[in-house]
Amino acid sequence: MQQRIFTLLPLVALLGACSMAPHYERPASPVPVQMGAGQASTQAALPGWQDYFSDPALKGLIAQALDNNRDLRIAVARIQEARALYGITNADRLPTLALGGGEQAARTPRTVTGGEATVGRRYDANLSFTAFELDFWGRVKSLSDAARNRYLATEEAQRAVRVSLIAEVANAYWNLRSFEERAELARKTVQSLSESDRVIGRRLETGLANKLDALQATAAVEEARASQANLERQARNARNALQLLVGTVVNVPETEARLVATLPDTRVPEGLLSDVLLARPDVRQAEYELRAANANIGAARAAFFPTITLTANAGSASAQLSDLFGSGSGAWSFAPQITLPIFDSGRNKANLDLTEARKVIAVAEYERTVQTAFREVSDVLSDQQGQQEYVEALERAVARQTERLGVAQSRYDAGLVGYLDVLDAQRAQYLSQQALIDAARARLAVTAEAFKALGGDEQKPLEVD
C-alpha cells in the first residue's frame, strides 16, 4: 500500500482535465480597420532606440534614464513580485512532500495500570503530504492561469513604462534644447537692440532723431530682456524635468546646431492597419489582464463543486529507536476527504458575480486601451505631415521677415520712414524665429510620439498557451 500511494502521486497531480473557465475569445476591435489617409501598411516595426534616435547626447541620456529612473525600477520590481506570486499559486497544483521524524513518549501511572507505572515510546520517520486538492474541476489550474497572466501583464507594463520613458526623455531633451536656443536668440536680440538704442541715443543728441524714437528703442530693449529672462527660466525648469526622468544630474553639451537642422528624414507610413496596435505593450498588458479575469471565473465556478483532498504518509515506526528501520517496521496512513458546499449564505454566488463583473471591466479597459492607441497613432500620422508643412512655412516666413527688416532699416537710414517701422520689422522677425524653433521642437516631438505610439522596440505578438 505504501508503494501504491506514492506511485499514484504523478497521476493524481495531473488530474484537472475539466475546466470551468469560459472559452477565451479576444474582443472584437472597437476601432476602424485603417489609421491615416495613405495606403494601409502592416509594416510598423521600429528599430531599437539606439538606431531610431541619432543625437549622441540624447542617446546618452536615454541610457542613463534606463539605468536610473525610479518608475522603471518599480516596474521591474513589480515583475519580480508577480513572478513570485505565480510561483506560489502554481505550486498548489502539485503535492508538497515533507520528510519528517519524531518521538512520542508517554508515562502511564500505576493507578491506571494496576501494577507498575509504564513508559511507552514511539519513534517515527515518514514521507508525507497534507491536504492536497485533487483538481477535478480545474479550480487550482484556473487560479494558476490567472496568476500567470497577471505576471505576463506586469512584464508588458514594464515594457510600456520603458517605451514611454524613452519617448519622454527625448521630448524633455528637445524641450530643453528649444528653450536654450530661444533664450540664446533673445540674448542676441537684446544685444542688437541695445546697439540700436545707443545709436538712436547719439542721433538724439545731434538732433537727427526725436524723443519718440529713443523711447521706442529703449522699450524694445526691455521687452527683449524680459523675453530672455522668461525663456532662461523655462530652460532651467526644462532641465529639472529632464533630470527627474534621467534620475541623476544631466550634462547636456552645448551645440551650435539648430533644432531645425536636426529634423529626421525617416517617417512612419501615412496609412496603417489597426492590427498593428495589438503589438503595443500596453494593449498586450490589457489583454493579459482580461485573460486573468476570464480564468478567475473558472475558479469561482469550481467552488460550487465538491472539494476532494488527500492526506497520506508512509514510513517506519518502532518502539525502539534502534529498530526504526528494521524488518516489519513499515507504517502508513491514508486519509481522503470530500467536502461539498451546502449552505454558505450566498458566498460562492457572490464571488462568481464578482469575477464576472471584473471580466466586464477588463473587457472595457481592453477596448479603451485599443481606442487610446488608435487615437495616438492617428495623431502621429496626422502630425508628422502637418508639423513638417508648418516648419517649412515658418522657414519661408523667417526669410521674408529678415528681408523686410533689411528694407526697413535701409529706408530708416535714408530718412524715409520712422524708427517704428524698423521696430515692427525686428519684432516680427524675432517672433517668427521663435516660432520656428518651437515648431522644430514640435516636429521632433512627433518622432518621439511615433516611437511611443507604435510600441517602440517592444513590439511582439501576444504569448498564448
Produce a short descriptive summary.
The chain is an alpha+beta fold and 465 residues long. It folds into 2 domains: 21-93 and 137-305 and 345-453, Outer membrane efflux proteins (OEP); 94-134 and 306-339, Outer membrane efflux proteins (OEP). The protein contains 11 helices and 7 strands.
Task: Please characterize this protein's 3D structure.
- This protein is α+β, with helices and mostly antiparallel strands.
- It has two domains: about 350 residues, Outer membrane efflux proteins (OEP) (Up-down Bundle), CATH 1.20.1600.10; about 80 residues, Single Sheet (Outer membrane efflux proteins (OEP)).
- It has eleven helices and seven strands.
- The strands form two sheets. Strands 3-4-6-7 form a four-stranded antiparallel beta sheet. A three-stranded mixed beta sheet has the order 1-5-2, covered by helices on one side.
- Helix 7 runs antiparallel to helix 9 and helix 7 runs antiparallel to helix 11.
- It is elongated, with a radius of gyration of 38 Å.
Structural class assignment: alpha+beta
The CATH homologous superfamily of the largest domain is called Outer membrane efflux proteins (OEP)
Main-sheet strand order equals: 3-4-6-7
Distance, first to last CA? 38 Å
Give the beta-strand count: 7
| H/E series | HHEEHHHEHEHHEHEEHH
The amount of helix comes to: 55-70%
Radius of gyration: 38 Å
What is the domain tally?
2
CATH architecture of the largest domain: Up-down Bundle
Overall outline: elongated
Main sheet record: 4 strands, antiparallel
User: Which regions have little confidence, pLDDT < 50, spanning 5+ residues?
Assistant: none
Q: Give the CATH level 1 class of the largest domain.
A: Mainly Alpha
What percent strand? Answer: 5-15%
What number is the mean pLDDT?
87
Q: Examine the coordinates and then state which fold CATH places here, giving the name of the CATH topology of the largest domain.
A: Outer membrane efflux proteins (OEP)
